[in-house]
Amino acid sequence: METAASPPSAIESPATASAAETFLRDRCATTLYPTLCYDSLLPYSDTFQTSYVRLAGVAANVTGTRLCALTARIKDLVGNVSVSDAGGDRRPSETAAMRDCENTISDAADLAKRSSAELSRLDSADETTTEAGGSSSQRRLAVSNAKTWLSAAMTNEGTCADGLEEAGAEETPAGKEVNDGVSGVKQYTSNALALVNGIPL
Asked: What is the pTM (predicted TM-score) of this model?
């Protein structure tokens, strides 16, 4: 699984920074969670500047990073739940739901990272075909792929939450932590998908 890059440290001119921040604020206004969108993506403003594709790619990458972190946390909790199971403190259905969440959230992380990579390739292709006007078909395909994968990531997040609810695991401390984590990361995924939807075709 890929590791996310740290926020870039390059220094922007005040004019460039202002343009990037204004662009980010405007784009985040189209999402369901604009404050989260702005705060989480502002550190990357020198990367996306005023590019729709780069902004959406960064958002997908940030989402993937959050999902990777959640996967790691679920894995730790599953280990603790398994120890509890040995003492008879948890139902097998609760343990199964947690393990299912580990798999589905890991898959969601891969999907988000794949979306980011697809948009990075599109950005590189755009740079090499700018003078010729770019390839509209390639652009549509890349954006469609990114949408599909981010939508699938959201489905996986919902599957995890539903499984916890059906097993009654969300009422346990570990299950509640996972459920809260999923609720939080879904906001990142939703924002990334909205930013992909906003890419001009």
From this structure: 0.85
